[in-house]
Amino acid sequence: MLTLYPELKPNAQHRIAVDPPHELYVEESGNPDGIPVLVVHGGPGGGCEDSYRRFFDAERYRIILMDQRGAGRSQPLAELEGNTTQALVADMEVVRHFLGIDRWILFGGSWGSTLSLVYAQTHLQCVSGLVLRGIFLCRPQDIQWFYQSGANRVFPDYWEDFLAQIPEGQRGDLVSAYYQKLTSTNELEQIQAAKPGPSGKAAVRRCTPIRVW
User: Fold this and answer.
1) Global pTM?
2) Topology, domain 12-133
3) How, if at all, do strands 61-67 and 104-109 pair?
4) CA–CA gap between residue 141 and residue 148 (Å, rounded)
């Protein structure tokens, strides 16, 4: 798609309580009687952006944006308690029932492509189609390429920002090293690990480090 559809506002916004302490932000836009499509955002923890509504023809689709547990406008932000892949799949089912939808299309990007596939495998009868982009399957080899060895050869300048926060002796497992910093009780250390580096990009994506399996 070279041009997005025109900007539009949500016509309904919901706060849906799931397992404590989590409360999901869900919004609807487009045609209330249209084809239901759920935007499954990346991250984990990235949250939805207003521009995501513009991937769809508002006259044909009932466009549903859901911020996953701990992400975006869902509360509490960055909460790790009970934040697993299986819980996110269960949340999608809660939302589907809440909205009275029998079957919907899943539109997932990056981590959202992984979550969409897991949901479809679990609730095949509820999925009328999958549109997956920026495929990221969250397999061990994918995590290794993205955060340890692989992406460093494609984006060496951003990689230097990424490494800068971690002492040399801890760089053998960068995911664990960043997890320790991002979940530290030291708020300054957390901010330093997440803030943009000299190249203007965040050292790590603003994400919630949920347990994938």
Assistant:
1) 0.86
2) Rossmann fold (3.40.50)
3) unpaired
4) 10
